[in-house]
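Hi there,

I know you've been waiting on this one. I reran it after we fixed the sequence typo, so this is the corrected version. Both the input and the resulting structure follow.
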Amino acid sequence: MHFETIAIHDGQSPDPKTGSVSVPIFQTSTFGRPSLEERNDYFYSRIGNPTRTALESTLALLENGKHGVAFASGVAAMMAAVQVLKPGDHVVSGMDVYGGSYRIFEQLLRPWGVETTYAANEAVESFAECIRPETRLIWIESPSNPLLQLTNIRALSNLARERGIILAVDNTFASPYFQRPLDLGAHIVVHSTTKYLGGHSDVIGGAVVTSDDELHETIRNYQGAAGAVPGPWDCWLVLRGLKTLKIRMEEHQKSALHLARALEAHPAVSRVIYPGLPSHPQHELAKSQMSGFGGMVTIALKGGLPATSKLLNSLKLFVIADSLGGVESLVASPARMTFGPLSQEERDRRACTDDLVRLSVGLENAEDLEQDLLQALATI
């Protein structure tokens, strides 16, 4: 079946008892047992809940994977994925990664005795140079946050498999509609379902998808033991979002490309970063491993932080916010928001400079969004 059909039907059949077309919200903490000697498939909602099962099944199918595991947030999903590590192991991560991922590597894993080395996202050779005998995991985002750098997932997966290393891909920016890392050879896919999968800025969640039975067992055991699970209402909200994912991603992309082209010609903008533009240095790679370019656009302004502040404070439709992927258009200064807790030296090392502005292009009319950006740019 096609993507949109799977998103609406698979794992979400009408309830066998009531005929409910929408998956019921099983708002219960525990389930009764038939007898002391027997138990049903569900007995305690931390371990399993029918609403969560429906979400996990659908997520796995959309990523063309075998197993889906849902979590209470994107960083909880990442913590589950890194349970494949033990003290003494080594991680190679892309340099340009979400601030929450960086904090996990540096503030949580490093004290456990797991060291992380950072490679250039766009260069597979850089990852190869960082690999050590004790390297157990390679972690990437493609496209990355906030610089929208791409990694050649096929090439990196071949390198990882040759070296016996697990490759995990954060696929939040692309979504499974535009990119399927498992099909490109990755072992693990991670999502913040808060973003495009939920799509309405009303739920926090995360997910891990894999086709590897052993990895799934490790991640599923962690889910039950650590307990960072989404409630049934959260699962239902993400399920509802998935039903319109195709339509939303197409519109996000259409408007993002429109704005990227318009901003490229603006005299106050020094650079536009969007994989759908021929000017993006990895435009051809994007076309080869993605079926679309997504709804995220990053721009660099002439004038540094004063210009960034002026722009953000002058926008009317774009909301200054720390998230992305919703129906509403959002805007952020990565250097002062997501990466704000990092030192200036560390931000500079990651090329997360004060002139950067990250746009999460929503579902408003593209011409209205363009006019909002133009009037704000005119104030600089």
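Quick highlight: The mean pLDDT is 96.

Best,
R. S.
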